[in-house]
Amino acid sequence: MKPLDFNTVLFALTVLCIGLGLVFAISRLLTRVLKPRFSPHHLLLAQKSCLYVGIVLVICTTLIQLHVNLTAVLGAAGIVTVAIGFAAQTSLSNLISGLFLLGERPFEVGDTIIVGGTRGVVLSIDLLSVKLRTVDNLFVRMPNETLIKAEVTTVTRFPIRRMDINIGVAYKEDVKKVIRVLREVADANPHSLNEPVPLVLFKDFGASSLDFLLGVWFEKSKFLDLKNGIMQDIKERFDAEGIEIAFPHLTVYAGSETPAFPVTVTKETDELKK
């Protein structure tokens, strides 16, 4: 390696500073240009690829200006990488998992996902972790390895969804009437889609009720509007039609050979009121 003079070092530092500035500027410009044409997921992937490749090129150019033998540097970097890999297996696993997430695309930036007991909107997909914002505005960082191993539900993957509402009515009610009322409630709701048609199913004979399932299809952005509105509509229509919504009943049976339980009815006294 040749001895370095001040001008060479100054020039190399200038190349490093200007190069990094250009890389970040090009990355931001690329984001603005591609934003109208690409999804947030592809936009993030393109931005990070441009950023990482540009930084590597600038560093290599700076080392060349300093008359550094890149072959030796790459060889040493390989040895260091192996050593770091053994020392930081978790980080390396997250890095590889992040590449799989970017390639497989089980979800994109802006999607709502459920992982375990956590539900939130994807803010970013990085090489080591995924950032989420929960419905109550909390910030959650999940390691990529966790997402690769866990079951991930992408709530907003498809443009429409179905909301399933379980309803129990009293055993005395007319099944056909309940089905008709539920279908009319679904058809009348402005957020319920006509196609696919709503599903009304007589599910089961429950412990204290006749159990029905109402499945309503809706646009994914209308979840809260439909949820709040259709629950109120069901209650109002059931009250208007005289349909009793069931509640748990408890019957105590002591057997035919056992005498009935004695029941004593007393009047409320002033002392009990106190």
Automatic annotation (TrEMBL):
<feature type="transmembrane region" description="Helical">
    <location>
        <begin position="50"/>
        <end position="68"/>
    </location>
</feature>
<keyword id="KW-0472">Membrane</keyword>
<comment type="similarity">
    <text>Belongs to the MscS (TC 1.A.23) family.</text>
</comment>
<dbReference type="InterPro" id="IPR023408">
    <property type="entry name" value="MscS_beta-dom_sf"/>
</dbReference>
<dbReference type="InterPro" id="IPR011066">
    <property type="entry name" value="MscS_channel_C_sf"/>
</dbReference>
<keyword id="KW-1133">Transmembrane helix</keyword>
<dbReference type="InterPro" id="IPR045275">
    <property type="entry name" value="MscS_archaea/bacteria_type"/>
</dbReference>
<keyword id="KW-0812">Transmembrane</keyword>
<protein>
    <submittedName>
        <fullName>Mechanosensitive ion channel family protein</fullName>
    </submittedName>
</protein>
<dbReference type="InterPro" id="IPR049142">
    <property type="entry name" value="MS_channel_1st"/>
</dbReference>
<dbReference type="Pfam" id="PF21082">
    <property type="entry name" value="MS_channel_3rd"/>
</dbReference>
<dbReference type="Pfam" id="PF21088">
    <property type="entry name" value="MS_channel_1st"/>
</dbReference>
<feature type="transmembrane region" description="Helical">
    <location>
        <begin position="6"/>
        <end position="30"/>
    </location>
</feature>
<dbReference type="InterPro" id="IPR011014">
    <property type="entry name" value="MscS_channel_TM-2"/>
</dbReference>
<dbReference type="InterPro" id="IPR006685">
    <property type="entry name" value="MscS_channel_2nd"/>
</dbReference>
<feature type="domain" description="Mechanosensitive ion channel transmembrane helices 2/3">
    <location>
        <begin position="51"/>
        <end position="89"/>
    </location>
</feature>
<feature type="transmembrane region" description="Helical">
    <location>
        <begin position="74"/>
        <end position="102"/>
    </location>
</feature>
<dbReference type="Pfam" id="PF00924">
    <property type="entry name" value="MS_channel_2nd"/>
</dbReference>
<feature type="domain" description="Mechanosensitive ion channel MscS">
    <location>
        <begin position="91"/>
        <end position="153"/>
    </location>
</feature>
<dbReference type="InterPro" id="IPR049278">
    <property type="entry name" value="MS_channel_C"/>
</dbReference>
<keyword id="KW-1003">Cell membrane</keyword>
<feature type="domain" description="Mechanosensitive ion channel MscS C-terminal">
    <location>
        <begin position="165"/>
        <end position="245"/>
    </location>
</feature>
<dbReference type="InterPro" id="IPR010920">
    <property type="entry name" value="LSM_dom_sf"/>
</dbReference>
